[in-house]
Specification:
The structure is a homotetramer of 359-residue chains. Chain A is of the alpha+beta class and 359 residues long. Chain A contains 8 helices and 19 strands. Chain A has a single domain, classed as Chorismate synthase AroC (Chorismate synthase, AroC fold, 4-Layer Sandwich), CATH 3.60.150.10. A 5-stranded antiparallel β-sheet of chain A has the order 1-2-3-7-4, covered by helices on one side. In chain A, strands 10-9-11-17-12 form a 5-stranded antiparallel β-sheet. In chain A, α1 packs across α3 and α5 runs antiparallel to α8. At the C-D interface, β1, α2, α5, β12 and α6 of C face β1, α2, α5, β12 and α6 of D.
Chain lengths: 359, 359, 359, 359
């Protein structure tokens, strides 16, 4: 219980079901005196919102955030920032047919068994709608980090088998928002879009990978031995709906390398100590070394498909789940801002924690 | 700061540097009245300890745990369990030559920059010696879980390119301890051993993957939305030294599948609701569904190699790092009990947290 | 930073300034499947609200709570309960004259110095209006505890020098709500009311003491050594606005006793082990022993008085603070439900924590 | 469960029973690069240790702390500081007669009922011996605060009815260690000593009050609304064995004052904003205002008396508890360093937390 808070000093607690009154949260520990750009916050919400293109769900959620506290004359006051986003396009009738159903690879079965009760409408608390609160907090964290020069760029790295193989340093993130898929490798982007479109037409869904690169990292972020930067960042990503894997730096491929190949040798360039290559992904011993932090996040295919499936209901009866409703054929384009948001919250929290190292 | 505690109700805090007086920890929140098998605890420490075979480091650490509190007449009392393991075979002289050096892909540079001071002997706090405390706590958690029937089996899944492709359900864990590599696929085990041996002879190191399977999981463990079972488990694994990746269930491969392939359909078998396949890895919506929880952990190649490397020292001077000392050519065989330990701590903590769901 | 959360398993996080959009909070970890009585919740809010009698402030706040999540068909779902109470009767113009002023014994000076910025309207975050969120969470906790038989009764014990000297066991709590002062000793109640009325007429304020008695306590609540029942309960009370002291059981008077007088001898009554007297206040070694938990909470006089006072402003200038506005001459009658609320949250949290003692 | 950690950034976790192997703890989050004075740490332990004078218990505990980690060449490294103090003079035979007994006003009954098992020797975990770990951590915190100019002075304010009435500002703390009672009012000190001596001779015990004054406080410490400085400080004090009450500033007496008397008017002196009087006890709105923080802590009489008492044992039988053993007739002289220690830990933790207010 009580697992709805993330962070230690910059702390987000969220609430809300997909079809309840509202979703929202409280950001506690936001530094004081920060002037916020509310348009930027809304822009992030728009990147996440459904209905933004032909390859996302056609549900319309307005996703207008209302701030309730913690901001005075446009600036943060250091007191908790409460916010909410009303649930508008709820269409609750859509869900009566699955009231007692355990949809395959959804959270119906586990919520019912854990809590003995659940809000079945639109997945209730297990809906990815919950991530809208993360995007709000992440947008604020991102603005604060931007003031220090830190940039966070998520992007679609793979859709099914289609993957960009451009090295991290060749990715041009000014391309990301040029396509609805958010892959900065524009050639691959078109392939991905076409592929998702064909998947959608077949009533199916497909998984994918979101990559992320954080540049201009301060040195020294991360708190060993349990709160290593990679550990908390990985936990943050794995808490996002549908995520099944996380790797940082050389990741799973790096396990195939020899130490002599994998080691990132130091060198001195322009009077700064840097590494020649960056298999470490900017983290050594759980602490940032100033090189870019980059990582991949694996998203399984969306569980709701437009095909009929057999299942079981609450009472143990065999049932048919009809393939209907409005859902994403592939979650990764909308997941990009969520990955960025969780990255921003994590990095800002570590930045604040690191201030306690000295008196 | 203050990142040396793991868990919320079953809580481990650790201390200790590789070459300080001792390593150890405090387990706070261990359930009361549990009779402990101290031989079993020692057995786990022996699985982790160096010098156990030709493919591990030849350092000799005795790793005898001394319990200081929290146990009365062989049983846990519910009060904190303090414990320590003395550092014996320290050979501190070995490290004077690297006093000021930043060894490639080690934590020397980041610790020095973060804290402004570091115990350079044997890596200090960043040494994997720290994991001995995790194994002590994990061994206790494992015993408690075993009383409920929960089993946790780690194993070596891959060394470099050599990987067992046996499906999870065909792995015979009674084979794991039969070889020094701890791969239950005995044919692959021999290949792996030979490969590590050749790597060792070339003065190099190699990465690998540790897999883990948890069976007889209680349904309902995991605390959405941030403390999902997979999120905390992933964070736990990523906090282990040298880990660069984590995937649960279908993981990164699952991103290539369609929803219609990936979905785990429910069925009723022997009056229990089960899933036909288990791409979910036993976790849906962040909560265990009773199916086996299985996951992979990626370990990079050990950074210390028996070859000379160029580097930089604290003062910015170019230096040569000599390849000497006693280190593992491949960390995965000794990592198996560490992965199991972190899994056990995580699962037991979630078990206790789940008790607060009802009054 | 990040000090706006109370509790570990039943966890309240609050937000909101006195004159912002709304105050509210998130309850994370509320047990699932609890049927809530919303009238009872509102009744508690009404006990706290301003304008309820001639001896409280004449400000009118409607204090209607809106639940945004975590409740489905009248029952808790185990997911976070988000709620908000709109700020209606804000009269923000009232506060422009104190924009830069540091009012004596208010939090203006400390907030300004700590955060470098503050919402000066009505005290902003430092206003006692914040406690409305505590009353909401407390009302829910109280209902859950009531199902176990636990009762929590706060009452006014003293106003200035006027104090009820009835022993705990003679207090008839059915009298508490019979008077606007909430003192169950009806003779003293009238004296207190008259006294506050005279204080009010003189444009002044007066302090007081709120007592509280918790009966039918489960044995075993409290988590030594730092989270002793009395320690957390005391911290809870001391976090309420204007509180300067806390004592449990024999408290400060008990320091004058000898051990032979103070010790609570055990006896067996109706096959239950009880203590003959209860100087311990129901807590021994930081853990409840089943006897009534009783304690006192000291409230200083309200800082806002209807008299002119000299002060300093943000720029260091000498200023006059005019005595105007609508404020309580004595805070204790309205503090009773707040004390009960914090007690209920504390006890329920310990109840849930205690479930983790065994597997 | 898991209540053995105090603090959020400067974090102390303790372990140990009175007659187990050792008591000790881990300090996680101690700032790096601090040169420690180990003699000063030992001096604090000596102030707490038993057997130091005729008015304390005649038990002899050597209380030599051994540091196990986190310190390198005399300086803190920012990694966890593990430490232990061996239990030497255990005389475990002394306790066999109370194996099953529930001693009046001790924690025997509550521990037995909570955990179902307990280490009965010398009170086990509930023994005040546990506070030795707090003194170690407090001594380190005190040294760090001293570098900023912050001074923390505890003293005996009252023994039974004998109380010093000197105002805070007239207390000369250079007198505190001049007498074995630690009351800086030397006239009262002698009265107190004589009184305790007479109490001791009658085989009884007596309660008392420890006061504490913290000077040169940084402005801005404390994290509303739940982690107010007074709330956390109060909780810290109430977590010490035998404490039944806490009051800050005007405390319980202040409830009798009018607002016009109680309010601390601001004035400008030497270009600093100060208050003319300090009923606030240096805390306004839960945040330090730079004035001295002063508070009182009420200690009940020690429960172990040298007189026979009736009681009940584990099996519900009536028993006689013999008055024997070696115990303090009054706990307050030895409690002074414990109060100071908890104050130091609390203030340092808030100092570090306050650093996260800005980026």
């Amino acid at each position: 219980m009580a697992g709805n808070t993330f962070g230690t000093l910059f702390k987000l607690t969220t609430f809300g079901e997909s079809h309840g009154e509202a979703v929202g949260g409280i950001i506690d520990g936001c530094p004081a005196g920060i002037e916020l750009d509310f348009n930027e916050i809304q822009k992030e919400l728009d990147r996440r919102k459904p209905g933004q293109s032909k390859i996302t769900t056609q549900r319309k959620e307005s996703d207008i955030v209302q701030f309730l506290s913690g901001i005075f004359e446009g600036k943060t006051t250091g007191t908790p920032i409460g916010f909410s986003i009303l649930n508008k396009d709820q269409k609750s009738k859509d869900y009566n047919h699955i009231k007692d159903a355990f949809r395959p690879s959804h959270a119906d079965f586990t919520y019912q068994n854990k809590y003995g009760i659940r809000d079945y409408k639109g997945g209730g608390r297990s809906s990815a709608r919950e991530t809208v609160s993360r995007v709000v907090a992440g947008a604020i964290a991102k603005q604060i980090l931007a003031k220090m020069g830190v940039t966070i760029n998520g992007y679609v790295k793979a859709v099914g088998e289609i993957q960009t193989n451009l090295p991290i340093e060749s990715l041009d993130f000014s391309n990301t928002e040029k396509t609805i898929i958010r892959c900065p490798d524009l050639k691959k982007a078109q392939e991905m879009i076409d592929y998702i479109d064909s998947i959608r037409k077949s009533g199916d869904t497909i998984g994918g990978i979101v990559g992320c690169v954080i540049k201009n990292m301060p040195i020294g972020l991360g708190e060993p031995v349990f709160d290593k930067l990679n550990a908390v960042l990985g936990g943050a990503m794995l808490s996002i709906n549908a995520v099944k894997g996380f790797e940082l730096g050389s990741g799973f491929e790096g396990t195939k390398l020899r130490g002599s190949q994998h080691n990132d040798l130091f060198e001195k360039t322009n009077n700064k100590i840097r590494t020649r290559q960056n298999n470490s992904g900017g983290v050594q011993g759980g602490i940032s070394n100033g090189e870019p932090v980059y990582f991949n996040v694996a998203f399984k295919p969306v569980a709701t498909i437009m095909q009929d499936q057999k299942s079981i209901d609450k009472n143990g009866n065999l049932i048919d789940i009809k393939g209907k409703g409005r859902h994403d054929p592939c979650v990764v384009p909308r997941a990009v801002p969520i990955v960025e948001a969780m990255a921003a919250i994590t990095i800002l929290d570590f930045y604040l924690r690191n201030k306690a190292i000295t008196i």
